[in-house]
Amino acid sequence: MSTVDRKQREFARREDRFLDCAQALIQRDGLLNLQMAKIAEECEYAIGTLYKHFASKEDLLVALSTRNCMDRVELFERAARWSGPTRERIVAIALADLIVLREQPEHFRLAQFVWTDVVWGAASEGSRQRALEACEPLARLVDGIAAQARRDGDLPPGFALPDECLTIGPWILCLGMHTLAQQQGLLDPSGIGDPYRLLFKHLHYLLNGYGWRPLFDPGDDAALDRMTGRLCRDVFDAPCPYPVRP
């Protein structure tokens, strides 16, 4: 074992400690109250040591959000590699995203903040690039489902949108609904019902619009809940992340 290897491992462990501490402080004190000096103090390091890892608080937040993003890869892989129809695999990807959100809502709130210009625009080019690279495996998994759908004939011949453009549609739906549902008072369940059942209705309407087979009737709530529950059980061995109707 070389001295360089040992130092690299020590550096990585120290960086993880800083990120763990930042996550704990965000959960305890709130995102806007996070201070670099407090992180260094809690970890019992000089603040200069912290800045050797992260040039700014923005870089630290981007790094933390990037690490959190990796929690989604395993669930996305389950959905993408499941043996079911390609359309149901896309729905399972949306379910994977929702499962992570339900289990770790603070990760989504951090990601929302990081993608604002006040953080993303102030972060270094290196930290932004590492964040984008961390998302690439997720994008490849989703785009791979669309490519398989073309090969299998589940999408109409000559469908105009390339895979990476086609899959932006479901992503926009999921991101938009997560954003609305996480802000207290923006959505009225008495009018729209459960927001995540509504999300999957919209997702099926979108996939129908693509002509993605087999087509599905999003207006059939019972069938929608059966599919959602079955995918949660068969793909993730998990309960449905929104309440299904009996």
Describe the structure.
With 246 residues, the chain is an all-alpha fold. The protein is built from 14 helices and no strands. The termini are far apart. The model has no long low-confidence stretch (mean pLDDT 94).
List the helices and strands and how they pair.
Blueprint: H1 3-29, H2 36-43, H3 47-53, H4 57-69, H5 73-81, H6 86-103, H7 105-114, H8 117-120, H9 125-152, H10 163-166, H11 168-181, H12 189-192, H13 195-210, H14 221-236
Keywords: DNA-binding, Transcription, Transcription regulation
Pfam families: TetR_N
InterPro entries: Homeodomain-like_sf, HTH-type_TetR-like_transc_reg, HTH_TetR
Weakly predicted, low-confidence segments: none
Percent in helix: over 70%
Shape category: globular
Taken as a percent bin, the fraction of beta residues is under 5%
Average per-residue pLDDT, rounded, comes to: 94
Radius of gyration: 21 Å
Oligomer: single chain
Distance between the termini: 59 Å
Largest β sheet strand count, sense and barrel closure: none
How many runs of DSSP E, i.e. beta strands? 0
Keywords: DNA-binding, Transcription, Transcription regulation
DNA-binding region: 35-54
Organism: Luteimonas kalidii
Domain HTH tetR-type: 12-72
